[in-house]
What we know:
The structure holds 2 protein chains of 2 kinds.
Chain A: H1 6-15, E1 30-31, E2 42-43, E3 51-52, E4 58-59, E5 61-65, H2 92-104, E6 110-114, H3 121-138, E7 144-148, H4 155-164, E8 167-169, H5 177-183, H6 189-207, E9 223-229, H7 236-250, E10 254-259, H8 277-292, H9 297-300, H10 313-320, E11 327-328, H11 334-337, H12 345-354, H13 362-368, H14 372-375, E12 379-380, H15 395-399
Parallel strand pairs in A: 5-6, 6-7, 7-8, 8-9, 9-10, 11-12
Antiparallel strand pairs in A: 1-2, 3-4
Chain B: E1 2-6, H1 12-24, E2 32-36, H2 61-70, H3 78-89, H4 102-124, E3 128-132, E4 135-140, H5 148-158, E5 163-167, E6 171-175, E7 180-184, H6 197-208, H7 216-222, H8 237-253, H9 261-276, H10 283-292, H11 325-330
Parallel strand pairs in B: 1-2, 4-5
Antiparallel strand pairs in B: 3-4, 5-6, 6-7
Amino acid sequence: MVALTLKRKLEILSxxxxxxxxxxxxxTVKRDSVGGKxxxxxxxxxxxxxxxxxxxxxxxxxxxxxxxxxxYDCAYCVNRVSSNxxxxxxxxxxxxxxxxxxxxRNYIEGLFLSSGIIKSGDYxxxxxxxxxxxxxxxxxxxxxxxxxxxxEASPALVNEAALYADRISINVELPxxxxxxxxxxxxxxxxxxxxxxxxxxxxxxxxxxxxKTTPPKFAPAGQSTQMIVGADAATDGEILAKSAGLYGAYGxxxxxxxxYSPIPDTTSRLPPVRPPLMREHRLYQADWLMxxxxxxxxxxxxxxxxxxxxxxxxxxxxxxxxxDFPVDLNxxxxxxxxxxxxxxxxxxxxxxxxxxYKLLTLDDVKRLTRRLDKLxxxxxxxxxxxxxxxxxxxxRARLTPPTQLSLF
Amino acid sequence: MRVVRLASEIDxxxxxxxxxxxxxxxxxxxxxxxxxxxxxxxxxxxxxxAPPSPGGFTVSREFLxxxxxxxxxxxxxxxxxxxxxxxxxxxxxxxxxxxxxxxxARANDFARQVSKAAHKMKAFVRFRSxxxxxxxxxxxxxxxxxxxxxxxxxxxxxxxxxxxxxxxxDVCIHWNGAQxxxxxxxxxxxxxxxxxxxDYWRTYYASIFNPARxxxxxxxxxxxxxxxxxxxxxxxxxxxIAAAEGRTNLMVAQAPxxxxxxxxxxxxxxxxxxxxxxxxxxxxxxAAGVDACRRCSLYKDATQGVPGEGPAHARLMLGGxxxxxxxxxxxxxxxxxxxxxxx
Lengths: 408, 343
């Protein structure tokens, strides 16, 4: 076999990693390289996107695979054993070197390392941990590290991974357990859940305050997961119920939705389609409503029902629950204001601030929001009442743009 | 008219002292002209400000933080805007809470734009190697607002043990591993022209892009074109966009691939593992193995496997052809049409 150049390896192993949606470098502890030997800092809250690709996605981390050789045969994955994709494998040293070289030039916030399964789950996990350990111990690297955990790997290895990583993640892959058995025969839904549960316990224990001892570090930026949307028949209702479960049971920081995307080498088990990007977008909006707007998943949509692709899920909820509107912005509770379509968390906070000193008028609302015409049917201000507008039969048509842009 | 001349474009301390004095003396905002040293002699030399009157007044911490950010904005009206806010706060102490007030909204907009410019500077500065030993780097950057000095400590904390310079048209920052120094604004020619690693970075940028998800507006919203000329990866963007549609069509139209050699081999190994691991130790186990055997296609039309019979330690073994119909459906070997004597 001809030895691959480092550049060719980088090409193969970043191409193979791009189907993972997460690139976040947020939510970890605050630290910097002052007084250390190496480079790196994290600011604790928001991460930094160092570039954006023409797909609009943030490039924050060096997102690569240790290797794309894999003994599994997951139909949706370009790296499945039955695919004819070119294969490569990085050495531990090569990844450490690339990460540091990129970091010192301010291209990245750190490393997001994942891998195909070679030999065994434990063997692969061990190699990944070696990379993180070398960065942290040999090079005193204080930037961000996200490690993908292989669910079959032993708990001791996962604990070691969490000691060096800011975030760890295990992908649930598909919304339905049955689809996982179908499309990813070597993966085990129960094993994945158990592994996520162990990670949650590790995170909880590390957060507990002991009087005498400090618990070992454990992934201060928590855990996240990813679901592929459109590779099986699960409806949006099922997907959101699954997400709600994941947020609740495993304390996920984020659930990522990844529209099933055509891959260069497909299998007859799962024909290529254009990725359902609008559906993915609506799912993220619904996810946002669950996390920041106080909606429960079954308020947004129920099992068996997909989200409306033409209007956002908050507007859809408002149109179904017109009895709750209009909302008087000068008297309503915060919770109810957050449910008004077109009002974001920031504008609600500002309105609450302002109304302590003066009554809100339509002009105030206009300055704080983008689309006043969309808001008007749902709000009352000092100088505005929507009257019968809220209950008009053609309200949906009035609020929906006449021509749908074709997003593909 | 009162003319105030500040020491620099971002002279917050100077602005603060002048504003405190002016408000203390009851000088209304529309009678003050704010200038910066070196801005030519458009106005006569300012009369020196009288010392602040005793008594003084207080403002909220929030206003000071807002003002410190707003002053970094490139808009010429920022000093006057801030003084107008300060002036109005005497009568309207809660003014900043009214986000819809035009002056407050404008100041908030300025602060947001400055904060965004600072964030983009943290993101888009690209260092180039100038020396390997000692390891030293330099970057050329053009910030949207005058945020260089305020962002510099971020780089000092992140690259505390590295030697680096960030050169901008406004000011240049130098870190020697222990101390920060500033020099006047520079020129792109002062910065190194290339870095071999940029080729690797471009390789990464091109490979991590998914052509099936083209969203150019989402990219340019977060990475505005004005930054592209100093981003080594940006030169790839036009070609990546142009080729995306074709690459996607190709992927969607392609036929499923043939299973590769490795997989066929693996499938065979997995199938045979059942037997290879078994290593039968009795005739019963051999019989069970025959029944389960799928190594050749003969099993396909067969009802069941038909094992041999006789003592396990026999010194002689007779082999015959496949059992005939009676044998296949009911058991014993070498019976029926294909039985003893045939071949």
